[in-house]
Amino acid sequence: KTILQHTTQQINKMKVQLSLYAKNLPKVTSLFQGAANPYAVVKTLSEDGKAVDVGKTEVVTKTLDPTWTTRFILEHDFETTLHVSVAVFHKDDKGEPKPMGSALIDVVTVADSKPFTVSKGMKGGGDLFVKVQKYEEKGTLHLQMKGTQLKSTEGLGLGILVKPDPYFELHRLTIDRKGWDLVHRSPPVRNTLDPVWAEAVIDLGTLCRGDMNLPLRIKVFDHEKNGKHVDMGEFQSSVNGLLASKNFSATQDINQADLASAFTLRIGKNKKEMGQVVVLRADLIGMETVARSQDPAPSEPPKQDPAPSEPPKQDPAPTIAAAPIVPEVAVAYTPPAPAPAPHSPQPPTAYYAPQPTAAYSPQPTAAYYAPQPTTTYSPQPPAGPPSYTPPPSDGAPFVPPGVAAANAHQHYTPPPPPPTFEAYIEGGCLFNLAVAIDFSASNGDPRQMGNLHYASSWGDDKNEYERALHDVGSVLAKHDTEQRHPFWGFSGKFQGQIRQSFQCGPNAEVQGIDGIQSAYRSMFTSRSGMSMSEPTTITDVIKTAAHYAKKKSEQARYEKCLSYTVLMIITDGKLEDFTKEGRTIYDANDAPMSIVAVGVGSADFTGMRYLNDIDRNGRKMFNFLPYDVLKSNPRMIEKVTMEKVSEQLVQYFTSHGIKPGKKVAKDIVFSF
């Protein structure tokens, strides 16, 4: 019986985390001292009324509305009551602490409330707010950051005489996803626009409740002695985002590492830039693996090469057409789909149906080298000394006749410089942007805040897909000649059938980035008839884009100009079969096309980086961009986006012997 009681007590016990903030504390300082410097002392009361010290918070200076970042971990059996005593004091540097108020809190009552917060008036004045949440040990994050070229808030914003004292705060999204909790505040760095903050060790259970993708808000302030700290900007990320930022910078040129991993601070409705924050260190301690969202991409790239040494077996004809389909618009509800015909459905005439390309088959290698027998060395008798010819009387060195003749009639001409991306565009090359968006169920319910497709009220707020579309799409679209873009989706379900390449919106092409956004939002209305589904694959949409690129190039030939297409894919990266995607990219490499894959969210994108390395005849066409890492740095987005696309466009045309401003050679004919 004793053992059973002990086991039951262990099961009922759990750890909770207690956090505090206060409002309207009484003024206990003199007129010339300004506001108070409050801190809180926490004690638990046992059943016999004895007080047990738990700890005290940090001191928050010059305020009557403190928010303390110190958390208190309590272990409690919820079958009994647990009372916590909280006393608030003013820290007087020249005397004894002065009491400001106190309250007695029932932890069980707070834990049972929604949203786990209770306010209580204190004896002495002011209101105390207590939050109690379940706590689990998740390890720690060792984080160090620095600010670069921060905009001054002193001396009319010029910072000539006095520079700011920047510090940063970390806020996490609340459980009800309606607000933010302050979880960490750094010490200020005095008198600088380029602060290097001290390394912080932050409990992951406190920071993100163990959810590595939980949104975090990083805010920077200029510390003021009077407690009226000045906002210097903010950015949003997550633990995985901070880790990815540091890891991404490690892959860059050492002279550009800071730029690659920087987050841009913004302020106000106009999102004015206020400088950048660079992650110097972001390491997890006490965790064997990082918690990720469900169904992550494989942690290691597939071992199978995209170009197999043996021709792959021919897959059976897919039930889903590669060309995009235009879903019928339902008036109210979507009626059940009719029974499918026994044969593969025909694609609509408005789109091209790409034929499967021939599988790659390497040429046999030469036979094993067999060394030939060598002849026996026989030394020859030494020849006599060469005859001496005296130099000419003028003392000039001897010049062979062939060289003298060449020098007399020829002059050195340096080779022409290699062609550039700008030369092709200015020479009349038509640049086309096509867009494809991931509508798979792994993105989460678009009606729930925090998910990647979250629809909000569709006001001015944009979700992650819309922000990526605007930030990366605008970089590519400004080179588009006609500003009309085909817009496709994948992993959507229409009338019970999963489609991996379908038209988004009522029109085959839309006008500009704004047109894409409008068509994107229309896909979440009942009239679209689409529901999010799985599995996720980009194979069909790549085939569709390759066919589109070849068709545009054929049309350009008759107009005596060039054409090149960029397919921008926006996805959460949770593809079903990276080996299959690699084969598709390999087969599409002969098209005048590049692929820019923008990864949204903080999933494991190892598989996407594997696709980066797919090579055919020395040319790569797939480019992965981790948007969560780059989104706070527009300049870096433009650099990494256009750098590879420009290189691949030039490489494609030069490999076919096509110079800028020249018409396409007659012998370049595409098969469809």
Report on this model:
- With 672 residues, the protein is an alpha+beta fold.
- It contains 14 helices and 26 strands.
- The chain has helices at residues 2-12, 107-112, 204-207, 239-249, 257-261, 401-409, 421-426, 464-477, 512-522, 539-558, 578-587, 606-611, 627-630, 634-655, and strands spanning 13-23, 38-45, 51-56, 72-77, 83-90, 98-106, 117-121, 127-134, 140-148, 166-173, 180-185, 200-203, 216-222, 230-237, 262-267, 272-285, 430-438, 484-490, 492-494, 497-499, 502-503, 509-511, 530-532, 563-571, 593-599, 622-626.
- Strands 17, 18, 21, 22, 24, 25 and 26 form a 7-stranded mixed beta sheet that branches. A 4-stranded antiparallel beta sheet has the order 4-1-8-7. A 4-stranded antiparallel beta sheet has the order 3-2-5-6.
- A hairpin with a 5-residue loop joins strand 7 (117-121) and strand 8 (127-134).
- Helix 8 (464-477) crosses helix 14.
- The relative contact order is 0.09.
- Residues 1-11, 252-257, 289-379 and 663-672 have low confidence and may be disordered.
Brief account:
Helices cover 21% and strands 26% of the residues. It is of the alpha+beta class.
